[in-house]
Design goal:
alpha/beta, Double Stranded RNA Binding Domain, six-stranded mixed β-sheet, two-stranded antiparallel ribbon, 3 helices, 8 strands, elongated
Length: 172
């Protein structure tokens, strides 16, 4: 009986030691835990949406970097184990709801931003993707877009960043 316990303990110890050598681990919540040696790069995003604010590409890349800095990943200029790049493909303002009274004026407008993200994971190629992410925010039509645009962009990019990270880092 003692021999069986010894071999079982040895087996468990071996598994634990081997698991410490793996650069990527999964936890019970479905997210990934990375070793300190895993690198990440965020390449410049390209703007192909004709109406998008010129600073949107930098705003999105900075928001993505800010969230990634909360992890223990190490940043490199390019060619990281995890790599993000992409294109701003959509930036549209549309009326959302029409006011009553027959004058056909919108009571609110919607800013929708679409960003196509290409994620490359050298550690687990099954997680690679090239996909669009789209979010929107509404604002009253009584407000001028230029007065609320910066805050709307921040809110929308924060949501898209979370979507991208959930799909890549959290592996959902």
């Amino acid at each position: 009986m003692k021999t069986l316990k010894f071999f079982f303990s040895l087996f468990i110890l071996t598994l634990l030691l081997q698991s410490q050598q793996c650069p990527v681990k999964y936890n019970l919540s479905g997210g990934r835990n990375f070793a300190d040696t895993v690198t990440v790069s965020v390449m410049p995003f390209v703007n192909s949406a004709p109406l998008a604010k010129a600073t949107l590409t930098q705003t999105f890349a900075d928001a993505l970097r800010d969230e990634l800095q909360k992890t223990k990943l190490t940043f490199v200029p390019s060619g990281g184990d995890l790599n993000y790049e992409g294109t701003i493909t959509g930036y549209a303002i549309t009326p959302v709801s029409i006011q009553a009274g027959g004058d056909n004026n919108a009571s609110s407008n919607r800013l929708t931003i679409t960003i196509n993200v290409k994620y490359t994971d050298a550690l687990d190629e099954k997680l690679n993707f090239d996909a669009p992410f789209s979010r929107y925010a509404d604002y009253p039509s009584t407000q001028n877009l230029s007065a609320v645009e910066d805050q709307l962009i921040k809110d929308i990019t924060d949501q898209i960043v979370q979507d991208v990270l959930n799909r890549s880092i959290n592996a959902w």
